[in-house]
Write a structure and sequence with these properties.
Layout: H1 2-17, E1 24-32, E2 42-46, E3 50-53, E4 59-65, E5 68-76, E6 79-88, E7 94-98, H2 106-112, E8 123-126, H3 128-132, H4 139-142, E9 149-154, E10 158-163, E11 166-167, E12 171-175, E13 178-179, E14 200-204, H5 209-212, E15 219-224, E16 235-243, E17 248-258, E18 265-276, E19 279-280, E20 285-286, E21 291-303, E22 307-321, H6 331-340, E23 357-373, E24 377-393, E25 406-422, E26 426-441, H7 443-446, E27 454-470, E28 473-492, E29 495-497, E30 500-517, E31 520-531, H8 535-539, E32 541-544, E33 549-552, E34 556-557, E35 560-561, E36 571-583, E37 587-612, E38 615-640, E39 644-657, E40 671-683, E41 686-698, E42 706-707, E43 722-723, E44 731-732, E45 735-744, E46 747-756, E47 780-788
Parallel strand pairs: 1-7, 12-15, 33-38, 42-43
Antiparallel strand pairs: 1-4, 2-3, 2-5, 5-6, 8-14, 9-10, 10-11, 12-13, 14-15, 16-17, 16-47, 17-18, 18-21, 19-20, 21-22, 22-23, 23-24, 24-25, 25-26, 26-27, 27-28, 28-29, 28-30, 30-31, 31-36, 32-33, 34-35, 36-37, 37-38, 38-39, 39-40, 40-41, 41-44, 41-45, 45-46, 46-47
Length: 792
């Protein structure tokens, strides 16, 4: 029924638009904070996707515009980007002032120590308009819109970001300037972050470890909320929606304001909720895949010309069902799921969430302050405290049926102090980071030996980073030293032991960027990073319900526990990234290639199967080897005429186990996404009308491990890496999205309708951990409503 609705909407938009003549005109000027014009700045106007480049006097113009609301985004090398909302017709000139790059990503960057991030790194972002079309989806799934970013998936609700083939402990997430410290070690542990808080999400795909430490070996994800101090009086935004596949309802409410006109104090409150039942594959119900989520955050800030202060607190709470068929009671069930192509357990749709499932609660407190000292620079201090609670519930015996099988509590503290300075010819940063972590298990509640042991961790790092500008060139260099103390509380033959470790490791970066002309820039960056294995990679032991597998760490072999630090090899990465960016009035292109050689690469892979009192499960073991990851990403967007735009995105990762001359498991296959968008502008009272079609293509992963059937596996299987099934075939999906904005007084109501997998294609994603048991979801229609009553 949804397909005819989308078709009718498209014909209506196109038919009415053909009779409309748009002749409005917009002009403006771009300058720096001293009033000097900035020539060759790039100005993009949405939703028309037109681009203009400022002249020698900093002036720009757009013509043939329809009446309505538009968003101007200005970018200029060495300065932070700026946005401005305008309503056409507009009689006066638009003047936009840019600030120097020391304040790039002000809310997140300066207060979190990101201000000196590399200008030679590949950086891609999702802006407000992109995020509006993704409301209701988890963070990891939203990030898949970015070239080079995929997700390690566990069923239809859990997505873990993967950047250039790396994930988990190698990806750092900055949530409102705070390093996200949750239970991210599990393959099915999604980030505990509410995407509704973000007005912008940026992904840095290089080795940004100089600023952040080893957690950024694979890249950095920056979740940036809108600045607190843009509002003039109380206002807000309401987002709601409905998804057909699992009948999920979505609601988010944000309210913000100041205490008085021109007051330096401002505040914001935001809350969101999602609830859905079982998802559906094209041919059957995916039993026990429902979810519930409730989140809340609040912020209070002070800002004047020289100083600022902010208090931020948030809570994230979710309950997610794990596909019931993923937990097999015996070898026959496992074989049936793999060979028949249909889950062995299928029941009717329900909103109830049974076992297996996971509950997560993540609480965050942030205190930040900054002060500008003339002639010295900007000093920023940030404290972040986090409390992460994870409960995982398995299919258990009657006497333990209501008790979790995993019960973890992680308390972490982080303190960042940095100095960001800027001179006419160079800018830079230096700082120190200190963090502590304490993880405990509720063994009295679970009644079993913990999968992840208790541990205490203290880390400290010091860094510097400098950028030098010479005409069209920018050079940069940086270095970082880290120390980590780790104490683990684990068991050997039922005796508690407390092995301790001290790790010392270095990171460094060198980069250069040349601006050939205002449209073309070439960047190159070489980063080197070391990383000690995480506690989970060292000492995991037991059944992990989320992956439906038994896991064993590097320091556990054949029942023995290794405590000698000399047995631990640090990961060492050397990554070289090159990117070429082209920006013109009607076309933008971004092409990047990278080569990443990692010694002592930690990975987890199947080694056998095992019968337990809770069922029959694969056995996965952590191991180390030397690997090479190489790949490329391409993103192109072009305007065709005044109303049409096309885009294409291509990503490819090649991975090889150098030490064993083998493939590497769980590497995303090549992907190619093509889209076309038609924007007729205004239609009657409807503004910013659009309709778009996208065709994402996922190719088969031909470099997948060899296959060994479960019945043929002996535990402790030796030889090359193997998997239980062949990599699934490639697939092509068809997605459509259409929408408009309706003025209501001084505010707007946004309406968007999208259809995903319109052809109801049956497919399995190689990066889905539950592909052994079931197909991915079928057609899904999503209605989104957004009422904006902000006052800027």
């Amino acid at each position: 029924m949804g397909k005819p609705i989308l078709l009718i909407l498209f014909l209506a938009l196109a038919g009415v638009a053909n009779g409309q003549v748009c002749s409005e005109y917009l002009h403006g000027r771009i300058s720096d904070e001293t009033g000097q014009p900035l020539p060759q700045a790039v100005i993009q106007i949405e939703p028309s996707s037109y681009r203009s480049i400022s002249d020698v006097n900093g002036r720009f113009s757009f013509s043939s515009l329809c009446p309505g609301e538009y968003s101007l985004t200005v970018t200029y090398m060495g300065y932070e980007s700026a946005s401005r909302q305008v309503r056409i017709p507009l009689s006066e000139e638009v003047i936009i002032t840019l600030q120097p790059s020391r304040t790039v990503l002000k809310d997140v960057v300066i207060e979190a120590g990101v201000g000196g991030r590399s200008v030679t790194q590949t950086s891609v972002s999702l802006e407000t308009e992109d995020l509006e079309g993704l409301h209701g989806k988890p963070l990891g799934e939203s990030l898949k819109e970015i070239p080079g970013v995929s997700a390690l998936q566990t069923g239809p609700s859990i997505f873990k970001p993967v950047i250039d083939g790396l994930h988990s402990q190698r990806i750092l997430i900055l949530n409102n300037g705070i390093r996200q410290e949750g239970q991210q070690w599990g393959l099915e542990h999604a980030p505990e972050i509410d995407p509704f808080i973000a007005s912008r999400i940026e992904v840095l795909k290089g080795a940004e470890a100089v600023r952040y430490g080893s957690a950024a070996m694979g890249g950095v994800i920056i979740i940036q909320p809108p600045p607190l101090h843009e509002t003039e009086k109380t206002g807000g935004e309401i987002n709601t929606g409905f998804m057909s596949n699992n009948r999920m309802g979505i609601l988010s409410v944000m309210v913000e304001g100041t205490f008085a006109p021109q007051s330096p104090w401002s505040w914001r409150l935001q809350g969101s909720s999602r609830k859905g039942g079982d998802y559906h594959a094209p041919s059957y119900n995916l039993s026990n895949t429902g979810l519930e989520e409730f989140n809340f955050s609040g912020a209070l800030g002070f800002e004047d010309d020289r100083r600022g202060f902010e208090v931020y607190a948030s809570t994230f709470n979710t309950e997610i069902g794990i596909l019931r068929a993923a937990h097999t009671g015996n070898l026959s069930d496992l074989e049936e799921s793999i060979e028949s192509g249909r889950p062995w357990y299928v029941e009717d749709f329900t909103f109830d969430i049974g076992h297996p499932k996971q509950r997560t609660h993540h609480h965050l407190l942030k205190l930040s302050a900054h002060q500008h000292f003339p002639g010295v620079g900007r000093v920023s201090v940030l404290y972040g405290g986090q409390f992460d609670v994870r409960r995982e519930y398995d299919i258990r015996r009657a006497d333990r049926a209501g008790r979790p099988s995993v019960s973890l509590n992680l308390i972490s503290h982080v303190l960042d102090v940095s100095l960001d300075h800027e001179r006419p010819a160079h800018t830079g940063s230096l700082g120190i980071n200190v963090s502590t972590k304490s993880n405990t298990n509720d063994t009295e509640v679970t009644g079993v030996r913990p999968l992840l042991p208790d541990y205490r961790q203290l880390s400290a790092g010091v860094f510097f980073h400098e950028k030098i500008r010479r005409n069209k060139w920018t050079f940069e260099a940086g270095a970082r030293y880290d120390f980590q103390y780790l104490q683990v509380l684990t068991f050997e033959r039922n005796q508690l032991i407390k092995p301790t470790f001290n790790f010392n490791y270095l990171s460094g970066t060198l980069g250069a960027s040349i601006l050939f002309n205002p449209r073309l820039r070439l960047s190159s960056n070489l980063g080197m990073t070391s990383r000690p294995p995480h506690v989970s990679e060292l000492y995991s032991e037991g059944l992990h319900h989320g992956t439906a597998s038994i896991e064993e760490g590097l320091m556990r072999r054949e029942g023995e526990v290794i405590t000698d630090q000399s047995s631990i090899d640090l990961e060492f990465s050397r990554k070289w990234v090159n990117s070429l960016q082209y920006t013109a009035e009607r076309i933008t292109a971004d092409f990047s290639v990278y080569y990443n050689a990692i010694d002592n690469y930690v990975f987890i892979h199947p080694v056998g199967t095992r019968q337990t009192i809770r069922g029959y499960f694969p056995v996965l073991q952590y191991d180390q080897t030397d690997v090479v990851l190489a790949g490329s990403d391409l993103a192109v967007k072009a305007d065709i005429g005044k109303r049409w735009s096309v885009n294409t995105k291509i990503s490819y990762v090649y991975a090889k186990d150098i030490l064993n001359d083998d493939v590497v498991i769980s590497i995303p296959p090549a992907q190619w996404d093509n889209g076309i968008t038609y924007r007729p502008g205004s239609i009657g009272k409807l503004n910013e009308c659009f309709i778009g079609v996208s065709v994402p293509i996922t190719f088969r992963q031909h470099r997948a491990p060899r296959v060994v059937a479960p019945q043929d596996i002996d535990e402790g299987n030796s030889g090359k890496i193997f998997d239980f099934t062949q990599a699934p075939p490639g697939y092509t999906l068809l997605n459509v999205r259409a929408g408009f904005k309706l003025p209501i007084g001084d505010h707007t109501l946004g309406v968007a309708l999208s259809g995903e997998n319109l052809l109801n294609t049956s497919y399995r994603n190689y990066m889905n951990r539950l592909r052994y048991f079931a197909d991915d979801i079928g057609s899904n229609f999503i209605l989104r409503l957004s009422y904006n009553f902000l006052s800027h």
